[in-house]
Specification:
binds 2'-deoxyguanosine-5'-monophosphate; five-stranded antiparallel sheet; 2 helices
Length: about 110
């Protein structure tokens, strides 16, 4: 089964990357829900957060630090970082990804 986000991460699917390093890439969401809406993904295929394990601890921490780096790069003081785990939570792409959204007011609790 082909994974669209694996394709973006390995370059076989063209996408304008906002950030990349050995472990992580970030790019703009195709269907933005906020003026700034980035997706941060590991290059490693992990279907969802609940599929990660102890071996992924450093990777998961690194993703959060990439989010901080992007916040600095885009001068975002307020942003929302969220991952949808499972279809019932709204996950439509089965490759772990963090939505980083900014530029509008966000409701809490989230809808
Ligand atoms: P989620 O619903 O949490 O699984 O979020 C998946 C997001 O991925 C959704 O907001 C749309 C975005 N998306 C899906 N396919 C592509 C793609 O090919 N390119 C980009 N840039 N974003 C995509």
């Amino acid at each position: 089964m082909t994974c669209i986000f694996c394709g973006i991460a390995d370059g076989s699917i063209k996408s304008q990357l906002i950030y990349e390093d050995e472990h992580v890439v970030a790019f703009k969401d195709l269907n933005p829900q906020a003026p700034t809406h980035l997706l941060i993904i590991p290059r490693k295929h992990i279907a969802r957060l609940c599929e990660a394990d102890e071996k992924d601890a450093a990777l998961l921490g690194h993703i959060l630090l990439v989010a901080k780096k992007l916040a600095q790069q885009f001068d975002l003081k307020d942003f929302r970082l969220v991952t949808n785990n499972g279809k019932g939570a709204g996950q439509s792409v089965d490759h772990l990804h963090f939505h980083m959204m900014a530029g509008r007011r966000f409701l809490w609790p989230a809808g």
